[in-house]
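Work Package 3 (structural annotation) set out to generate three-dimensional models for the target panel prioritized at the project kickoff. During this period the team completed the workflow that converts sequence records into discrete structure tokens, so that structures can be stored uniformly alongside our sequence database. As a representative example, we reproduce one entry of 630 residues exactly as it appears in the project archive.
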Amino acid sequence: MRRTFTLILLSGLLAFGADAQTILKEQYGICTQLTWEDELDKTKKILTGVRDLGADWTRCDFVWSGCNPRPDVWDCQHLDQILSGAKKTGVNVLPILCYDVSWARPAVEHLYEWGEYVRHLVTAYGRQVRYWEVYNEPNLKNFWRRDPNGAEYAALLQKTYNVIKSIDPGIQVVFGGLSGVPLDYLEDALKAGAGEYFDVMNIHPYHLRDIPEAIIPQIQKLQALMTKYGVGNKPIWITEIGWSTPEAYNPFGDAIDAAYEYLGIEKGKYPLVCVRDRRYGEMRYVNHNPAFSGWFTGEMEINMDAISSVNPEQFPVMLPARGEKFPAKYIPALQEYLKKGGTILFNNGCPLVYDLQLQPDGTVKQVSVGRKYYNDLHFNLEHSWSNPLYPKQERWQSVADEFKGKIYTDFKDNGKSCIAAPIGHFLTEDRLKAGDSLVPIIRGGNDVLNSCVVGIYRLNSDLKGNINICPAKAGEVGVTEDRQAAFLPRAYVLSFALGLDKVFWFDYYSTERVATEVKHHYNLVHKDFTPKPASSAFKTLVRMMPSGSSRPTVSRRSGMYIASWERSDGKKVWALWCELGQVKARISWEGDIEQAVDYLGSPLAIEQGDVRISEGCIYIAGPVQLHLSR
């Protein structure tokens, strides 16, 4: 069946949707890691949980080395256990044929042995398992075992396809889930003939530091590439997507708090101004961060054009960028904010060293500019690459005298160094003007250098505010549990509207072994199986868009999204949301509202007139028409 896709962009309106007459069927998946020791003994509980959330599918590794430990030995009892449990709970399994064994590594150089592994599993389980995924993220070196190569993957895919189809032509071959949407890699594979050897395309478009809407252009470009190579009619699945909720961590968080106290910024009184601009991909970060999460009442999000109009008396601290990238054309706006006495926070790297330049076609060009703009803001950082007198990493760190007794950073002595975390950037006075000063908070250096690594630039020249700089790379950060829940349905609804057939959340369960590591916190339930808010969001979405519903259509206007579809019971359903924060809007409709709930399933009382649209979907069932305006 040929797939059609429509995109309209007129006067600020974005509308898209594949054939709305298409009926979605068993569209929900959740990844599990049942073949791993942490989850195998919990197989029944995990599969029951997946089914109870409303998912039709689970996806897990059928690792070669796990069932073929020696060339002449096969042991698939764990796979028997998983598939038996899946059958009892009514969950379909998408197995991943993946990786290698010690005597056949890498797999692409041992295609005969790989083929025998594929033959063994598909022969054993092909009657129950009708879709097989060929490798996991083959475009990553750590999985492919050497530099990734699309043409090499095409060879492995061809071998797998031919073996599977020789066993049962009706079994469907799923392309190996690609990390991100790597178009160059995929094009290399398609040039090598991969288009003939798969039935379903497969991607993992993670956006840990971005919003779900970031998948829209990626998927559109993927569809265009597939059409170019004659495979545009093949289904596309997402078999991994998610947002992680690790504990936020910054070893110098108390030093940043001490700076606020030093500057007289009262705790719990003001929101933090966060600059986020959807035009600049790197400027759409949605992560929470301990550098400021406890000091402020919340976040006030603005775009670039609003920077110069912010009043420091109401909003005394601004975070213009989380990292090293910022559009240089807006540095004069930062100067205006500083002239009014505002405080700017730069953290997580060396600020302003990459200029983000918006191109006429809407893409963003990143240009390395080094310290070009430091004079404009009267601060300076030195590094080993800019000045050989400075080390790559300090050997010691200590609290500056003025802050002793106020900061309790844990400086760890390992015999070679005594630091909380390496920084390697040193704040200096080189670009100060008369009246400006540098206040060290954390000092650092080596046997011959005593410098500042965290500090405050007090500006009292043509600029009158403060710049608080903590260039330490913060620990891995993700999103809050509430934001994870808000993002989940948006990812699914957008994917289905874009023409995708199935989406798998990564993942259901985790032991949450390391509190601050991203990989341990994508889960929908905690290690004790208590649900996170995202579990409720998943169940609510399934209830509002069950299998048998029509494919949704989505439109965007003035920062608000409206999705609509026909539920399997014939009722029209609407979903409303905005990208970040809240938007005040006016709503009206034709027909009766039979049900209105938020993204967690809680009932809502909706009246015609003013309404607040937020990051979490509002679902409304019943009206035949619905209108939303600013």
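The chain has a mean pLDDT of 92.
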